[in-house]
Amino acid sequence: QAVAEEMRHQGPALRGLYRQPPEELGIVFVTKHWYVRLTTMSQPGPLDNFEYLCPHRLLGADSAELAAEPFIPISRELFCSLRRKYGGGPAIGALEVCPCCQRHLRAYSERKQAEFDLVSRYDTKDTGDGRGWYLVDAAWVGRWKRYVRAEQVADVRDMCAPGPITNARLLEGGAPRAGLRLRLDYIGVNARVWWLFAHVHGGGPALCREEL
């Protein structure tokens, strides 16, 4: 029990030592994914550490624990030998979380929530103060719903957006296609919701009609 208690107290320090080992230990990290390829394939391909780094050459996860999860430590000497043989890289001597990407992740989550709240507030069963209903491609609305309702993103590599509004799919010869079906082909929104969608995501064009 005394050993377990000591491990509990020392756990955070040990995890910190694992993620940022002293340089004199000569430890670097490779991905578990690549290490499995190395041990199971004759040609594992180049070291893939680049794929896990953010644009700032750090780790774009929202916590140190998540940043460390894909990696295992090996000696720098072994790493240099593997890189000479297979290429790739780079050498990662410490698993450092990127503070800039953490800010991006927080802003991304806050923006999604704010957008969802605004659309929920302004979406009505009438046209409100607008001049009619605005048609929005139903497939795009589906992507938007998945975007705002998705679970919290833990890595900048997983951030996504629905992209620009794809109303061009509803047109033929510059006019709305014949036989468009409500909810299957398009969704009707009021002017405020349309403005929010267009302002935040871009795309179009605006298609307005008095009746859905």
From TrEMBL:
Domain DUSP: 5-98, 106-212
GO molecular function: cysteine-type deubiquitinase activity
Superkingdom: Eukaryota
Gene3D superfamilies to which the protein is assigned, alphabetical: DUSP-like
Pfam families xrefs: DUSP
UniProt xrefs under InterPro entries: DUSP-like_sf, Pept_C19_DUSP
Name of the protein described by the UniProt record: DUSP domain-containing protein
Lineage: Eukaryota, Sar, Alveolata, Dinophyceae, Gonyaulacales
